[in-house]
Amino acid sequence: MTLVELRAGLDEQTLGRELYDCVADLYPICRSITGEGVRETLRRLQRQLPLTIHEVPSGTEVFDWTVPPEWNIRDGYVKNARGERVVDFQRSNLHVVNYSVPVRARMSLEDLRPHLFTLPDRPEWIPYRTSYYTESWGFCLSQRQLDALPDDEYEVCIDSSLGPGSLTYGECYLAGESADEILISCHVCHPSLANDNLSGMVIAAFLGRHLAALSRRYSYRFLFVPGTIGSITWLARNEPAVERIKHGLVLACLGDAGRFTYKKSRRGDATVDRAATHVLRQLGDHEVLEFSPYGYDERQFCSPGFNLPVGGLSRAQHGRFPEYHTSGDDLNFVEASPLGASFAACLAILDVLESDRTYVNQNPKCEPQLGKRGLYHPMGGTSPSPVNEMAMLWVLNLSDGQHSLLDIADRSGCAFDITRQAAVVLGEFGLLREAAQRCDERER
Amino acid sequence: MTLVELRAGLDEQTLGRELYDCVADLYPICRSITGEGVRETLRRLQRQLPLTIHEVPSGTEVFDWTVPPEWNIRDGYVKNARGERVVDFQRSNLHVVNYSVPVRARMSLEDLRPHLFTLPDRPEWIPYRTSYYTESWGFCLSQRQLDALPDDEYEVCIDSSLGPGSLTYGECYLAGESADEILISCHVCHPSLANDNLSGMVIAAFLGRHLAALSRRYSYRFLFVPGTIGSITWLARNEPAVERIKHGLVLACLGDAGRFTYKKSRRGDATVDRAATHVLRQLGDHEVLEFSPYGYDERQFCSPGFNLPVGGLSRAQHGRFPEYHTSGDDLNFVEASPLGASFAACLAILDVLESDRTYVNQNPKCEPQLGKRGLYHPMGGTSPSPVNEMAMLWVLNLSDGQHSLLDIADRSGCAFDITRQAAVVLGEFGLLREAAQRCDERER
Amino acid sequence: MTLVELRAGLDEQTLGRELYDCVADLYPICRSITGEGVRETLRRLQRQLPLTIHEVPSGTEVFDWTVPPEWNIRDGYVKNARGERVVDFQRSNLHVVNYSVPVRARMSLEDLRPHLFTLPDRPEWIPYRTSYYTESWGFCLSQRQLDALPDDEYEVCIDSSLGPGSLTYGECYLAGESADEILISCHVCHPSLANDNLSGMVIAAFLGRHLAALSRRYSYRFLFVPGTIGSITWLARNEPAVERIKHGLVLACLGDAGRFTYKKSRRGDATVDRAATHVLRQLGDHEVLEFSPYGYDERQFCSPGFNLPVGGLSRAQHGRFPEYHTSGDDLNFVEASPLGASFAACLAILDVLESDRTYVNQNPKCEPQLGKRGLYHPMGGTSPSPVNEMAMLWVLNLSDGQHSLLDIADRSGCAFDITRQAAVVLGEFGLLREAAQRCDERER
């Protein structure tokens, strides 16, 4: 099966529900940048795609960073004098500051207060906080919970461990016709947060599952890594392989009901930037952002020593939606329908990358006579031509070895799919052949 | 006489009336892509300019195309049972589908109906239809005529011929100081349609008549060709000559009352594109369109194997006005005044092309003292300077061998005419000389 | 002291008052393009900065121009029959047309009228007129004054002299670490006009005074020259030195209450153009104009034979404010506060030029770990970081030897000051070093 056929037969609604179910399955797990939560998550994703799980020992130096000790947690709570859990990790894993060191103590509310974090502006929501590189502990709770706490003596317990272990990440490589790679990366370190980034993880996993069954021009590499330290670790361990990455996408926040957002690579004019921009324009309302060195792991892929052509695809933008990094980013915040549409958009972008080729018009002097080949509407004909005539004229006019199909689609305003269809038909009639040196490869 | 002097003395109103009279003279002729209608049209145009009439035999191969059989028509009608002509070629040559094969038959309305073409949305107008490359026959009529036809037996007659003959086109070459050419092309294949394209034909012919009497920097080549097959035929027969074409315009739809439209060449930044854009901007409301591979014969001149710097000048846009390819495009749709103004606009564009030169300021370090040469307004003087001072300052400032007059006009916002006038005066005072290598020629 | 420290400690209000006092001190002097008025003005400016006063004899040829005879004036008036001065140079030096030849005569109002200049649209204001290169004489007066003159016999006296002498200009050179120069130029030829250009003169003088006390990367050259003939004279006498000018500003009209205007150099993308644009954008409402060959002495510096990277900084625009070249441009039209702010803006632009450098990220593969260096906000920290984190990320991401700090500031939207501060801190931690070949110097 080809990607074109997969897309043609795709049932977005059904697929969206499958994606949602997978998000729901992974939602309760308490993930962090290391530990059992990530391992369990990757094991479950192995049901979708052939994922290799890598373990990198704590203390390993990765460029300027060091793989941290491994963190695990079993329980955590604040009990009041009557022994009632007023803050309880079992109810939400957001309640304990991620990477909190173990603690077991009794203290007054006054002494406890510096360890409590709330969102006064969003009194119902629990914030999500981490302390990866500073030994510390704390609890996150809603402002309403905090307001209800009387002066009392509280029992505090965080039953966690922090010590030598390893950082865990998942990797899936699908070989294609070419050793040139398309990278799909997502972060897997957030606990019970649905959009950021269970949505990205399940879409990446499903992409891998479906692409594994297709014929592929490019090889694909899927990374499921803890944010920042995970991508840095992968880059440090795979530095020589990096030059094979010709296009890449970081996936995150793809399950909410908002419009699409594409964030360009540092290069700004990479083919993936143009492919994603083209696809989103066809899909309707969207936003394209210039690169900035903040956000998700494109920060690392686009650091100046790598400068990879990797952009970011999202709906809600990093840090720009109220539910971001709060308990508001729950299973109600993501929906099947946008998950399905996000998956389809990813396929459409990959389809452009797979299909973008440069052709040479074999009849470059004047137009070829399309009519004698049955490619032009007859007089008075009201039935549409099997192929878009304007797209054929554009492909013929611009196929001089200097314009790829994506160039032609962008300049003509014809959708890439229509443009490609025109090129296929023209090729069948011998009016086009692929250019010896493909300009869609020159920029790499 | 020079082009500048011709323009200065031009009486647009009188010329517009002459153009209109010429349109009216040619209007009744039934033209097609071959046949006597084209020949008669070209013969009448020979009154205006020294036109050579070429005949290319049917069956000649021209790139991917073949010159078709010649078509001629004497009469055509649909008669009702009482012998009345209910559709009559003698009333309008649009009534017979152009290139209809001969037919003589009696048939019911039901059997006739597939051969009848109307415009339901424009019930008073007769459509214009052709069937050049598919043997067929048919009648075009107004919806109102069709609605009035009762069930009846009809006599159908098309007294046409289709067989070996030739394709006819006209060509006029005016040698100039340089062998470099400016191409003016128009299509001559439409029957009684006034704007599309009698307006283009008569303006091209009048341009030839007037330019023949002038001193010319460039050589000029005027083509009067049937659309598509005519330009393809000319290109196939004149391939080596094509490289001498440095600028070109396809003229069509120049007699209606709408604003000007310029369609850029495929190159998009050819000098003719910039010259036409400059002139239309000076003239006021107008539209500049990017190139697209649809429209008139610029499609052929701008095919990738030629990629000539040929744009298109029109008022109403190809296919975008209701009267397009209907009997609504009649002698009431075109007017003397816009014909005259279109002629003047063509001259203005050609004048830019003729006059665009690159100069070198002979006093490049600081401004020259214009006052001591009488070129600067004296104190308290209220009479305007004989030459626009800002234009002089711009020409002096940018004449470094890198900017042509058109570049300077565009950057300064001064009209080209004013800019040239400043350059002439500065040249008279020895402050400018022409650059050895003219940058206005470099881009060719 | 450094420029950064000077700016940090600057009291704009106090400085604005000092600038205003200096404008007020110079206001009464009758300046022209030559003569005692310029000399006295330059002598007073020597209190501010170490100004060398140059004298260039009348008749000296400077490119296409000749240094004119020197003009001086002691008195001028029109007396009515009763001996009353109805127009009196002692009340305003604008009353006598600048460069008027001596005259002493009695004449009727009718005979006098061709020598009288008013502004009918601004009946209260006296116009400013000159006649440098045409021997003539005249009086300027308000329309109201003129309307009040009865038919009478008038005594006319202009007690001026016009003869061999010299053209006077001031120059101050401050050597810096590099022989590369920043040019600051202003015109000193206008009589009692406050904004045009006492404001420019005093700001230039104060810049010189303050910069003299600082460590400087660049050398600075300050020119106090009569408009047009003065800059032409300087360029003619210093032609070989011109190539050392890497950036330049012409200062004029900086004391009114309007927004800032920056007029780009002829190059349009010179570093000074980008620095000034950046600074004005940070300051708020402003206007950036493309270069045009009209205005102040940038006309000469940007003539094609020099094409220096010299822009113009103003508030009110040359010729675009009603008070321009009238008695309305008086001590009420300029104010201390905008003078102070203009001075500060000049310093900010110079600071960008002084500080713009290109760095290379020493940890280019992935981000360095800012947290372990105390450069990243700790968990839950609400106190702002000592350094803007986004600015650090931008500097790290773009410091690949291809982007200067100004490039980074423009692309990131961070103020240059913030960007530089980030670079300084990153440099202290060894994360940046200056590039061997600085791209901020390549364009020169």
Describe what this molecule looks like in 3D:
Three copies of one chain form a homotrimer. The first copy, chain A, is elongated. Chain A has an eight-stranded mixed sheet with strand order 1-10-12-11-13-16-14-15, sandwiched between helices. A four-stranded antiparallel sheet of chain A has the order 5-4-9-6. Chain A has helices at 3-8, 12-26, 36-45, 109-112, 143-147, 194-212, 229-237, 271-283, 298-301, 336-355, 389-398, 405-412, 416-428, 439-442; strands at 52-57, 61-62, 65-66, 70-79, 85-88, 103-108, 116-117, 139-140, 153-163, 166-174, 181-187, 219-225, 245-251, 260-263, 286-289, 310-314, 358-361, 400-404, 432-434. Chain A has 14 helices and 19 strands. In chain A, α2 (12-26) crosses α10 (336-355). Chain A has 444 residues and is α/β, with parallel strands linked by helices. The model of chain A has no long low-confidence stretch (mean pLDDT 96). Chains A and B meet through α11 of A and α7 of B.
Task: Write a short abstract of this structure.
The structure is a homotrimer of 444-residue chains. Chain A has 444 residues and is α/β, with parallel strands linked by helices. Helix content of chain A is 32%, strand content 23%.
Mean pLDDT of chain A: 96
Separate helix tally of chain A: 14
Radius of gyration of chain A: 25 Å
Report the sheet-strand fraction of chain A.
15-25%
Assembly type: homotrimer
Strand adjacency order, main sheet of chain A: 1-10-12-11-13-16-14-15
Report low-confidence residues of chain A grouped into runs of 5 or more: none
Taking the sheet with the most strands of chain A, its summary is: 8 strands, mixed
What gap, in angstroms, lies between the N and C termini of chain A?
28 Å
Query: Using CB atoms under 8 Å apart, which protein chain pair has the greatest interface?
Result: A-B, 22 and 31 residues
Query: How much helix is in the residues of chain A?
Result: 25-40%
